[in-house]
Amino acid sequence: MPVVRLIAQKFAAATVTILAVSAVLFMAIEVLPGDAAAAMLGGNTTIEQLEAQRAEWGLDQPATTRYLDWLISALQGDLGTSFISGEAVTTEIAQPLWFTTILVAISAVVSLVLALLFGVLAGLRPGSRLDRMLSGSALVVVAVPQFVIAGLLVMLFALTLGVLPAVSLVPIGGSPLDRPAILVLPVIALASFGIAWAGRLIRAAVADANTAPNVRAARLAGLPEPLVVWRHLLPATVPATAQVFAWLISGLFGSTTVIERVFNYPGLSEVLISAVRNHDLAVLEGVGILLAMIIVLAFLTADLIGTLVDPKRRVRPS
Amino acid sequence: MGMPQTPPPSTSTPVLSARRLSRRARTLAACGLATVLLTSACGSADATDAEADILRIAAADASGTNGLDPLAASAGASQMVIRHLYDSLMVLEEGQYRLELAESVEPNEDASEWTVTIRSDAVFHNGDPVTAADVAFSISALASPPSNRVSVYANVDLENIEVVDEQTLTIPLHRAGADFRESTLVVYSPVFPAGTTDFAEGVGSGPYRLDSHDDQTIRLTAVEDHWRGTPTVDILEITIIPDATARLNALKDEQIDYAVGISATGAQTIADSDAVTLHNGGLETAFALSFAMNQQLEPFDDPRVREAVRLTADRQALVDTALLGFGEPAADVVGGGLPGYSEAVTARTQDLQTARDLFEAAGVTELTLRAGEILPGMMSAAQLFKQQLAEVGVELVIDETPADTYYAELEKLATHPFQAFYYANRPAAVHLAAVTVETAPFNVTGTTSQYWQDLAEAQTIVDDDERLAAFTTLQNEFYGSGGDLLWGYAYQIDASHPRVGNVTISQGVPWFAAASIG
Amino acid sequence: MTRHLRALALVPGLVVALIAVAGPWLVSGDPLSIIDLPYGAPTGEHWLGTDHAGRDVWQQTLAGGRPLVVVPLVAVTLTVLIGTATGMFAAFLGGTVDAVVSRLDTIALAIPAILVLLLLLHSWGNHAGTLIVAILIASVPFVSRLARAATLQAMNSGYVEQAIGLGAGTVTVVRREILPNIIGPIIADAGTRLAIAITLTAVTGFLGFDSGQANWGAMVNQNFEGMALSPWGVLVPAILLAVLAVSANLSLDRLAERMAP
């Protein structure tokens, strides 16, 4: 069946992408000056001890050997150990990854719902006052850097009004879900950009779908507006919305790095920044690969939804 | 791969009536917002412990570990946790060397071997008494990789450490070292049970035991009837917050009671506030900031140039501008305010005329300084110093390196003629022995082999007073012609809720065992 | 009346752009030199007081706009050119070219922009080139996929088939049938690309990398903590930044509308 083959093809493509990402990350960190041994041992060593540590961690081996070693282990499920903490990468990044995913998931859902609202309301009546108001605000939100928005939120809600916590401290052994108040400000900071950006795209898609013949026909036929929107308009925007959602996920994972720092949210941000700073290769690869998998999966899903809803063959010049 | 349809926004679409839809949509939005606000209100009450006193502390941590490994502890939360979990043989507290776990630490005739006797009433958290065998094991562990204090114990002859009895052991050294106490034991000597390989349990003999921990927080509970007395605070909850501003915000928000290390700007902002108390650690926890000249490299092999550089600096201005006044001028030798500091060492005052003459005589019109924001204020100080050098006819080129990669290539640090640097403020003798010797990786001032000889000799003088005199001579020599332009001490400022009191400094970290929550 | 209002809305943007571009010529001395103690209040001599390091805020305002105009502009222009070209040709030529381009795009998209930025900043330091490359890596895949999809859509519309059937050459087809149809969404998206470029340029300081030049984004980063002590170092560059970005977005939007078929 063509659909099954299509899905299989896409999965194969996704795997190649992830492999490529792992190679790119490896190369990137090779290029950085210094290495993990210098970063770890810091100022309390001699040159001999440095060399010894390098040998112990296998840092004196050529890059390709190390990459292949890592790859073979990774394929068997062993992501290696962190140079800095000595713990297995999987243990080390499990909790931060989970916490960041919680934040991104909530922000993504909030963004999508509100972006849909914005997109539909503004797109159905482009040029109207509502549209201009919404689009105008979206423009401003997209323009102001997120960490500025985050800082202003902290100043307003936490330090002045005192209704929300300034720093996202998670209870010991628990998760952010145990204390949902710490999620509110980070989510607002993250989602604001998402709503503005996704909203504008959905607005464009809605405005365009609005001119489609079947929508016009439905209206002319006298169908009530909500039904027109629900049955004819929205389905046409599904492929675009799915794509936007996938892009949103990828963008949100990137934005969390800065937002988590501002709120001290215990997610991937600190792990990632430490890993880059300390040349902790295993952790960097581990995080990079997992993020890539999530993002690729998001795009895959969006693509499949798009193709399933609109399986037209495309025309190519010969 | 996919078809993201983003058609252009159309201007020619007729205005449609969709009032019913938008009203419903608006109601939905309002309901959604209300739900968010309600849930947040319910969840914002912090859990107040039904138990007695709990002190919530926030600190940064440089180790990148979970803070429990004494072999990997680094400045910040990890050092603080180790200090409370483990007793050390000797410590530096309130400006004095003190015996802690050790009852006596005595050298033999020529200080080639030391005998350590420990107290008999120290008990590990698992109930076992602390014995000399545990001390021997701890020293071996600290002296071997993967410990990050290997260089501190480099002189210890590990193979020949002998446990004499339950309370006594002898520690031979490779080379006679009369300063074994202050340059080794006082620097770092936590004791843990013999055979410990996994420190996750945190079994030590300190006044606090490990209750629970995760990646971000460590919980310690007081040990009743500790040999020091029962701690006054039942529970310490230490949270790692890397960002100084976030720590201060958490304090202002009353999520924590004590913030270790806030920025100078943060301190200035709350200086007049009644809601927060500032704690100034003074010279005991200060960092010593330097523009380090390597006296083996041009043009700093010319003592006139070194003197001219040191005379150009307006140290008070540097402190006021770069540290916002949260510091004090330094006198080119590390160790101000701590034991054994030479009285002859006083901060040079700025003397632009002499500096100009010296630079001219040496023929220097341009210098290059390698700098990075390795501590807050360092780049600002470099800029101001550049302006000060301009006044004596020398152009300073600032070669900026990102703080994260500043120490990336250790081998290169010893070959930069002029670079921004900082040291933890420690007693002069300890600093000189650790940093200016031949084997020190950070010997950025390029001390001479004659100096090393003098230093090694001083380390062998068994008589305490004579040794002090020898080190004083070394300090004076360093003051006269050494490589550091040590221009200021940056205080570490902590902040707390006003009801928190009696927090002292021990081993360079805040000590909470005697704190009071008023 | 609406038209006049909308034209008026662009005026602040132009003013800010003027300050950004012409400002450096009005600067006296080195804007990054330390003139007094930090967080000083405005005086007759130093109109906006001093910043966190004791430097003149007004002088930095004059000098700090150019990097934020030049780097994002150059980066986004390159992004649009490269992205449109790759996406268009991927869709048009199909087959291996399409597969390769799409694969490269996906790989670039799968790595979070911030990670790319961190790695590049660590390797090359904070220079205009580093930022431009980082922005390119983060933005070209978006534009490329956009262009590809829009090109496919245009090709589906039948006009292309028709033109080819009528014997038009590749270049003519691209120029006449494809480009006009895809320019709209790309320009509309360029507004977001520009905003992201400005944010990435500004965030570099937040992550601890200094460029050694006066820069509005860096000013916001560095003076944020001490805002209670002296707000000018944050408010002035932040407002200028926001006005600039908003205006740029507005103009790009209008441009996109004009280009809609």
Short description:
The complex is a heterotrimer of chains A (318), B (518) and C (261). Chain A is 76% helix and 0% strand.
General description of the model:
- The complex is a heterotrimer of chains A (318), B (518) and C (261).
- Chain A is mostly helical.
- Chain A has twelve helices and no strands.
- Chain A has helices at 2-31, 36-41, 47-56, 63-75, 89-124, 129-143, 146-160, 181-209, 213-220, 225-263, 268-278, 281-309.
- The radius of gyration of chain A is 24 Å and the shape is globular.
- The model of chain A is unreliable at 312-318 (pLDDT under 50).
- By secondary structure, chain B is α+β, with helices and mostly antiparallel strands.
- Chain B is 29% helix and 22% strand.
- Chain B contains 14 helices and 23 strands.
- Chain B has helices at 19-43, 77-85, 132-143, 180-185, 244-252, 264-270, 303-312, 315-322, 352-362, 378-390, 410-413, 428-435, 449-458, 464-481; strands at 54-59, 90-93, 96-99, 102-107, 113-118, 162-165, 168-172, 208-213, 217-222, 235-240, 258-262, 277-280, 287-293, 327-329, 366-371, 395-400, 418-424, 484-490, 493-496, 500-501, 504-506, 509-511, 516-517.
- Chain B has a seven-stranded mixed sheet, with helices on both faces.
- In chain B, α7 (303-312) packs antiparallel against α9, α8 (315-322) packs antiparallel against α10 (378-390) and α13 (449-458) runs antiparallel to α14.
- The mean pLDDT of chain C is 83.
- Helix content of chain C is 75%, strand content 0%.
- Chain C is elongated, with a radius of gyration of 22 Å.
- With 261 residues, chain C is mainly α.
- Chain C has helices spanning 2-26, 57-63, 66-93, 95-110, 113-124, 128-156, 159-165, 170-206, 216-223, 232-259.
- The interface between A and C is large, with 50 and 49 residues.
